[in-house]
Design a protein that fits this description.
A hairpin with an 8-residue loop joins strand 4 and strand 5. Helices cover 35% and strands 25% of the residues. Helix 2 packs antiparallel against helix 3 and helix 11 packs across helix 12. It is α/β, with parallel strands linked by helices. It folds into 2 domains: 254 residues, Acetylglutamate kinase-like (Carbamate kinase, 3-Layer(aba) Sandwich); 147 residues, 2-Layer Sandwich (VC0802-like). The strands form 5 sheets. An 8-stranded mixed β-sheet has the order 3-6-2-1-9-11-12-10, sandwiched between helices. A 4-stranded antiparallel β-sheet has the order 13-18-20-19, sandwiched between helices. A 4-stranded antiparallel β-sheet has the order 15-16-14-17, with helices on one face. It contains 12 helices and 20 strands. The chain binds adenosine-5'-diphosphate, aspartic acid (ASP) and magnesium ion. Aspartic acid binds next to loops.
């Protein structure tokens, strides 16, 4: 008997029929003698629906008070799906109980819409498990020290599940989703993408942070910190497939260095359409410029990703950086109204139709010429590179958004990741 955490995403919970399927699958694990904690997402589309309602009422950038209400609102999606799953389990003859984040409690900081989990009380969960119940815990949400409901950022149910698994020292955390594992790139964009049977923790961390939405980055961070055994697998297999087969399916996130993603130099391609670029042109080239520009942006609580400063010419330089698209208008406004006049720069402009495409692989550490192979492949497709950033195991470029799919497909092929190349 083992204690296992299952997480089911929005599509897997998308209708009462699918919820019944989830309940039957969970019941199968219970009948095999396991203790189960299940963390569901809201039914697919529900979080978007709720947030769109709020936007109708308050279209401009949300104030702090509005952010609080956005979290109270969005958290109801998971509350509904959790209760529905507990009901479906009971209908299958499985004892179960559902808890919202504040009932566990899952304690977080107070950063509405992107709160971080600080602690999880396991007393209530363990008592229910010991009483033979399946415990259903809402994904995506928690409660801060003042008792306000918080949410963990989009895709946050993955993080809830891994954090619950860490708190309970569960044997394994299984992330059930609408694809059957982690692929070399998003299989919806590149049909030739290949499923990986294992992926190293470090590569998964890079892929998640560079835009592969299959796992929320914080869930991977948690798994790394607490050494949670983590597997991504399909919720769309028939619920009654053999349990041992199911338990070995999908993609296992491994912590062993030598179990590199299929031993390839480049193991995966990630992309992200959520960023926008801002350029400050004709800035006096003197000490303190980066601080003046980026300090003001950081003070406004806007995160910056890639940064480029050109070499100065005639005492002037250009400075570009990327921010999340949601922060684009605010960052642009801030620079135009506050920073530009103080800096004496010539112009601020921006582009929110960009995307970031990245190649990831542990093998890049020990191979040279990988980045140049990437640049050559993009140039052969006639794609202009606007920004570049590198780290030990990844190279990212910013390009025009309209070339995203072309770039991802070309790179997937050139690095030998296409199915046919295997
Ligand atoms: P869930 O609702 O189950 O959390 P998500 O939509 O958040 O599901 O994540 C699963 C989706 O992630 C897949 O449908 C797929 O389109 C996308 N995805 C992006 N990159 C990858 C990748 N490298 N491997 C697998 N899926 C990926
Ligand atoms: N329901 C939330 C979202 O849509 C959390 C999740 O699904 O993981 O972002
Ligand atoms: Mg998700």
């Amino acid at each position: 008997m083992a204690l296992i955490v299952h997480k089911y995403g929005g599509t897997s919970m998308g209708s009462t029929e699918r919820i019944t399927n989830v309940a039957k699958r969970v019941a199968k694990w219970v009948r095999a003698g396991h203790q189960l904690v299940v963390v569901p997402s809201a039914m697919s589309g529900e979080t978007n629906r709720l947030l769109a309602l709020a936007k109708e009422l308050a279209p401009s950038h949300p104030t702090d008070s509005t952010q609080r209400e956005l979290d109270a609102l969005a958290a109801t999606g998971e509350q509904a799906s959790s209760a529905l799953l507990a009901i479906a389990l009971q209908a299958q003859g499985v004892q179960s109980v559902s808890y919202a984040g504040w009932q566990v409690p899952i304690k977080t900081n107070s950063a509405y819409t992107k709160a971080r989990i600080e602690s999880i009380d396991d007393v209530r969960i363990r008592a229910d498990l010991n009483a033979g119940k399946v415990v259903v815990i809402t994904g995506f949400q928690g409660v801060d020290a003042q008792g306000h409901i918080t949410t963990l950022g989009r895709g946050g149910s993955d993080t809830s599940a891994v954090a619950v698994a860490a708190a309970l020292k569960a044997h394994e955390c299984l992330i059930y989703t609408d694809v059957d594992g982690v692929y070399t790139t998003d299989p919806r964009v590149v049909p030739q993408a290949r499923r990986l049977s294992t992926v190293s923790f470090e590569e998964m961390l890079e892929m998640a942070s560079l835009g592969s939405k299959v796992l929320q980055i914080r869930s991977v961070e948690f798994a790394g910190k607490y050494k949670v055994k983590l597997r991504v697998l399909s919720s769309f297999t028939p619920w009654d497939i053999d349990l041992a087969t199911e338990a070995e399916s999908g993609t296992l996130i491994t912590f062993e260095e030598d179990e590199q993603m299929e031993q390839a130099v480049v193991s995966g391609i990630a992309f992200n359409r959520d960023e926008a670029k801002i350029s400050v042109l004709g800035v006096p080239d003197k000490p303190g410029i980066a601080y003046q520009i980026l300090g003001a942006v950081a003070d406004a609580n806007i995160e910056v990703d890639m940064i480029i400063q050109n070499t100065g010419k005639g005492g002037l330089t250009d400075f570009s950086f990327t921010v999340h698209r949601n922060d684009y208008a605010r960052a642009l406004e801030l620079l135009k109204t506050k920073v530009l006049p103080d800096l004496g720069a010539k112009e601020v402009n921006g582009d929110d139709r960009i995307c970031k495409v990245s190649i990831v692989g542990i093998g890049m550490r020990s191979h040279v010429g990988i980045a140049s192979k990437m640049f050559r492949s993009l140039s052969e497709e006639g794609i202009n590179i606007q920004m570049i950033s590198t780290s030990e195991i990844k190279t990212s470029v910013v390009i025009d958004e309209k070339y995203m799919e072309l770039a991802v497909r070309a790179l997937h092929k050139v690095f030998g990741l296409d199915q046919t190349a295997a």
